[in-house]
Amino acid sequence: MELKGKKVLVFGAGKSGIGSVSLLRKAGAKPVLYDGNDKLDVSALRGNFPADADIEVVLGELKDSLISSIDLCVMSPGVPTDIDPVNRIRRASVPVIGEIELAYACSKGDVMAVTGTNGKTTTVTLLGEIMKRHLGGDRVFVVGNIGNPYTDAAPETKEDSVAVAEISSFQLETIDTFHPHISAITNITPDHLNRHHTMEEYIRVKESITKNQTADDFVVLNYEDEVLRRFGESLGSRVHVKYFSSKRILEDGMYLDGDVLKIADAEKKTVTDVINIHDQSLLGAHNYENISTAVLCAVCAGVPLDEIREVLRSFKAVEHRIEFVKEVRGVAYYNDSKGTNPDAAIRAVLAMDRPTVLIGGGYDKESTYDEWIESFRGKVKDLVLIGQTKEAIAECAKKHGFTNVYLCDTFREAFDKCVSLAQPGDAVLLSPACASWGMFRNYEERGRIFKEYVRGVSE
Q: Which terminus of the chain has fewer CB atoms gathered within 10 Å of its CB, N or C?
């Protein structure tokens, strides 16, 4: 991609937008940072760049005169691609790409990319550690939706390096030539329908991670996800398909057999033990799927199983993913703030081995909560709700006969209610089934505040 001397509009002034502007500067382009929020601080935005950087910042209305002057538009993933300003840019015949596409065009080496509704961050973090063990830390860049913009790492990549990328559906909307050598889709369940509008479109976007892959590449898919199983079958010989399962033995792929994760190779007619689940620290069937995804990706990249096992034995749960915080007066506290949709929250509930007091609710992503409520049986004793969705969730719980529901106005009030409800031998779990927006900047802030509250509980 030739960028030198091109005037490029970066749409969205968040972390990804800042990263895109920085990369464009290094590539010799003339970036313009734009955001529709005219309340942002221009001086603070310019403070993200060197003092001598001549960065044009535009806030508020996007004028036709600016659109007519640009050669390219780079979208930040948080900005919907179907809003009027973006449509106006397209009508002006200006190419529109995303920050992942920009980073890929400016980077070297191989890419291993993981998407899916749930499990992406744990999988990518684990895969990153495996690849660092295999190649050395200076050759591996863990990037993407995990919180490290790909655009920041792109200039540092070399021909022998590997980018291990967590890719969201928002980021996949705007790829063009993005071509991972190894891709994976952990699962697909309803999420972000307020953005993608239909489940069919959400599925299409997720599956597009493979659109530029060839017969020299690999895709790892969840055999127990019917959508992904059909997708794998539809790929035929276009790309090498590898499956994993947590529920059945596979003739070719990775699966859980009792307490042991195994890999079967149909061509070699071999079955190899990878690890006993009790020899590593991640809890729950969903994490065995995350492990399988990471291991299969690593095996496809030629990493020996002995190296993989070393990492699995030492790897700890990622922050905010069923993260054990502390036990106080016989009550165990778990932070699963990353449970931002019902399917992720179900996985956390099913991983609990104690009667559980659950904090739920938050921003409304137009999800449904019936299956989440149904998962409470034998697990959740009390449900404490906050946020925009609390009334809707309470009504859903009532419909399913779950009546131990408490509505709170603040996060602090909800936490204190959980402390009062929990008895020795119980667990308190933050796994909201909703996004954090509206009450917190992000799920990380929600999780950190929860942990602060836990540490403040008197012994």
A: C
